[in-house]
Each structure stands twice: as C-alpha cells, then as structure tokens.
Amino acid sequence: MVDTLNHAGIECPVDELVDAHGAGRRRITVHARRGGDGALRVGFAAANSHAIVAIEHCPILDPGLSGALDAARALADALQPASKPLDIQVTATGDGLDVDVRGSGPLPTAMIATLSRLAEQHRLARLTRHGELVLMRTPPTIAVAPRG
C-alpha cells in the first residue's frame, strides 16, 4: 500500500493495518453504463474519472451481498443505460437484497413488468426506482446488535 501511495506522489506515514472485525460491507452502490464499444460495464467509478471499472467479484462484501453484482448486471442490461450511468444501490438485509435504481428516467409499464420478473428471478426482497416501489417480495429488515 505504501508503494502505491508513493507511486501516486503521496507521502504519508502508514501504521499497521487494523482488522475491522466485520463480515464486510453490507451496502454498495455500483454504476452501469454502455461504453462506446456497446459493452455494458457494471462496477465502481474509476478514481478521478467518470469511467466505470467493471467488476465480477469484490472481496470485502458481506456474504449477504452474494448475488448483488449479478442482480445489478441483469437490471442494468434490461434498462439499457447509454450516456448517463445508472446508480444501483444494494443493501444486504435479513430478507434478501434491497435494491434502489437511480438514473433510469420514467419507466413504461412493460419495463416495470420486466424489472419485477428480474427481482423475482434474483430473489430481491425489494426493488425501488428512485425510492418508488417496483416490487416487494418481503419487507427488508436489518438486525442491529448492541455493542458488547
């Protein structure tokens, strides 16, 4: 890590790494856009850029986010993002994935039906667009444990 910082021209002291004692991130926002080559890219934004770095797997995700990237790709493929990227926020809940899609614009009835089928296929607890409900199989819940 120090070498990477130095390579970027950043000099700073770096202490030993500290284990965060968690199963990983339980919420992510991925972006989706078709490139000039027509290929759909779903992943994270590159540093200091609007470019999207497509990812197949992220090692720091909570196991509850298993399937999140596949679901995001399927939703993005259906919505066909072009010049403006979609933002797909996925939260791991005790009842499945809770997904909110932003940037799609108004959805025709046929698209809502398609998204509902995808939500069922990927067993999403809930799918919303800009916070508006598209489909809810079960209310998503998150257990909060007291600090010990």
Uncertain spans, ≥5 residues at pLDDT below 50? none
| Oligomeric state of this protein | single chain
Shape: flat
Q: Which structural class should the secondary elements be placed in?
A: alpha+beta
Helix content: 10-25%
First-last Cα distance: 32 Å
Number of strands: 7
Total number of helices:
3
Radius of gyration, Cα only, in angstroms?
18 Å
Order of helices and strands: HEEEHEEHEE
Provide the residue-averaged pLDDT.
Answer: 88
State which percent range the strand residues make up.
Answer: 25-35%
What is the strand arrangement across the widest sheet?
A: 3-2-1-4-5-6-7
Tell me about the largest β-sheet: 7 strands, mixed
Short summary:
This protein is of the alpha+beta class and 148 residues long. The chain has helices at residues 2-7, 68-79, 109-121; strands spanning 27-34, 40-45, 52-54, 86-93, 96-102, 124-129, 132-136.
Structure, described:
This protein has 148 residues and is of the alpha+beta class. 21% of the residues lie in helices and 29% in strands. It has three helices and seven strands, in the order αβββαββαββ. It has helices at 2-7, 68-79, 109-121, and strands at residues 27-34, 40-45, 52-54, 86-93, 96-102, 124-129, 132-136. The chain has a seven-stranded mixed sheet with strand order 3-2-1-4-5-6-7. Helix 2 packs antiparallel against helix 3. It is flat and about 55 Å long. The model has no long low-confidence stretch (mean pLDDT 88).
